[in-house]
## 1
Amino acid sequence: MEFVEGYLDMDLIGQGRAVYFENGVAAEGTWQRETLGNHTVYRGPDGLPVLLQPGPTWIQIVPVGPIEGTLTYLHGNAAGG
């Protein structure tokens, strides 16, 4: 990742860590994309593909490296599960 003319230039090919949030529950997993012509595959903690619910989906790319920040969340659901 690098800054190019005021924008972050991110490599969207490869693989990495992912955190999924759905219905108040967080789960860690991975993402993988072989080429720009391929879809990104999202996998859950069990290694199986994540099945996204129908409707709008929001994907947030968070930089890692020298400008890495902190992502804080609670495992389980909002009711303390």
## 2
Amino acid sequence: MRRAARDGKKLRLELWVHLGFTRQKNTREMNIVKQKTQGRPRRSSAGVNLRAIGQRIKELRAQRTQKDFAQLMGVSQAQLSKYELGQSAPPLGFLTGLAKDAGKSVDWILTGKG
């Protein structure tokens, strides 16, 4: 019984070594983090103030609850909250629907002017 367990342990160790895993300590080469490829940015880098946009969205929501307003706009309450807090940029479709509903321009929602 002991021999079988020892042979199994040896086999696992040989498999690890074969696959390139070793028991050596961390080295500088092991700790190098791969550079992430450029993808779609999570936050706007074009100088758009998402918090200000969120404040204007909240202003247009007026006395309605986030839940009711989100249903009206076709988004979830959590997503509307992210827009209002400036954690996420609202898409163009949301902005045009909001502008139409509130009687404001998309420019005003984005910049506060116009």
## 3
Amino acid sequence: MRDALTASTITIVGHGGDRIEAYLARPEDQGPRGGVVVIHHLPGYDPATKEIVRRFAEMGHDAISPNLHYRKRRARSPTTRRRPRGRAAGCPMSGS
């Protein structure tokens, strides 16, 4: 396991020039190594996903987690509350 690593939020260029936010971590030592793409869960990447990326870097791999929701919105923290919808928002005729 390697202790020295670099981790940061970066921007990568996707199809059609789309700018995609991603979290990248890599060991600081030089030499050949494998790479891992970490796919986040539904709300987007969060501190737990970033920790997984860093753990792969500690094990000697380059690791990246792109924000797969970049076209819709920035990744939302799981602690962010959603706006109420349907009856919860005061719409009595709504079925949801």
## 4
Amino acid sequence: MTPAEAQLAEAAARQVSRVPFEDNGFGLCPHCNCAGHYVNVHRAQWFFCAVCRTRWRAGENLFSSWRDELTAGGAKELWAANAAMLELCENVEPVIPPSPPSPPPAEEEHGTR
């Protein structure tokens, strides 16, 4: 088992979270509707479902964790390992849940100013 395969297997073993469909703005696995995990590759944040072996790019500089990895040292090695692990996953278009409806505006109380 390669290090990338081991990383993916470890993530699959931990993957138990099921974020409510409407509470995820970064997308869900199109096969199982799981929010999965995310990793950084430089400034880019990638979400992946380790069980289905799917991945999708959420964007760049969305979370500050990539900066933390950079200042902690070993970021280049970590990002290379993350990139190798993501290569084992199929690039997919995530399921983007619809935005929940906005609550109705609160009615002003009469007689208060």
